[in-house]
Amino acid sequence: MKRLINWSSRMTRVIVAAIVFLLLGSVLPPLYKNQARPLPLNLNFTVTTEPATGPALNILRALHHEKPADPHGDPACESEQAPLYCYIEDRVITLKRVTTTSATNDDAVASADSSLEVTADGKTIAELKESSLLNRESAYPIPGLNSTQQFNITPLGTGASSMDFERDGISYFFPAKAEQRSYPYFDPMTQTAAPIDFTGTEKRESIPTYSFHQEIDPVSVVDSLSFAQQDNLEQLRRSGPAKAMFKPESLERFGLSPTEHVILEPFYTVKRDVWVEPTTGTILDVHEDIKIFLATDADQARQMVEENDTADRALFQADLSWSEATKQERLDSVRTTIESAKILSIVGWVGKVIGVVLLAYAASLYMRRHRDRA
Questions:
Q1: Over the stretch 239-253, which tens digit does the pLDDT of each residue have?
Q2: Whole-angstrom Cα distance, residue 82 to residue 245?
Q3: How deeply is 269 buried, as exposed, middle or buried, from its count of CB atoms within 10 A (0-12, 13-18, 19+)?
Q4: Side-chain half-sphere of 307: how many Cα atoms within 13 Å?
């Protein structure tokens, strides 16, 4: 019986070797990337920000009508009935967040938990705890009522909680193989997802990154948390004559009479920039300009932001950037994956080149055999 393939033939061995190299070059790199794609189940990392000085209301002194800690040489701030702006103090703000992932009953789903602490002059002023179930392939929350959130304002002993709600949008992780496009990005203060837009590329210590930008117009804090279980967030509202809330120049800017009765409520706005390593979806750096301040309504809040007149009624205001230690740790966490992907890309390219060369050599052997037979 005649053999279909002559395995002792040089041409056969060359063709087989070419196929092997081509397969290695074509299969290994994408296979590695696919294995590195799912969100890991054992993440445990801490994010801290550089200390940033920003204005913040001394809520307890204002609520109890105590004399301001520092009148700043303003006679209006010397009494216990001082205007609201007298209770604004410059404080050193820092943020610390611990994020973990763990396994669930479903291999395709990860449990993600996060605990955030905001401090002013070393004292805790706010805490936020979140928990969600995430699709490991996309890093998006899985459909259903499986997210929880607890927000506390420590000095007041008050806050709000949302139990078993459905969350939309990404948060602490981008999808692996992130694209140059907009993504829905969840904001814990607004309780909604808004687009975060791709803005460009840059390298961080030779690692390519994508940058994204998001701006959220002022929204009422109390209204945005209206569906949550609230523990007397109404304490954040302030009321009285306009002159007790606004400086003379602000009264004129917003067309308010000094004796006009006003009710102020907290509004929140943020501008954030996020840098992402696209292969793994790891966030490498974040910068957030956060403002929580008092205004009569959304229109006035927008005007305050546009005219940079929020500091005198700031509950919390800070321009926060991740610390150098955090950025370095996040870079180091992806470095092995990126370097391995680079090596495999080179291996893949070399494998394809060798495969093509071997196929060309096999073709030359084939042509030579036919010439010899002729």
A1: 889 998 898 899 999
A2: 9
A3: buried
A4: 13
As a whole number of angstroms, the distance between CA 314 and CA 307 comes to 14
Instruction: Report the alpha-carbon distance of residue 98 to residue 117 in Å, rounded.
Output: 9
Mean confidence (pLDDT) of the chain? 84
Is the full-model pTM beyond 0.70? Answer: yes
CA pair distance 41, 135, nearest whole angstrom:
11
Contact indicator for 328, 284 with CB cutoff of 8 Å: no
Backbone angles phi and psi of 122, in degrees to 5: 85, -5
pLDDT of residue 363: 67
Which residue's structure tokens are 């008092």?
294
Paired tokens of 275: 């840098």
Q: What are phi and psi of 262, to 5 degrees?
A: -130, 150
pLDDT at 1 over 60: no
SS3 for 369? helix
Query: Cα(171)–Cα(45) distance, rounded to whole angstroms?
Result: 15
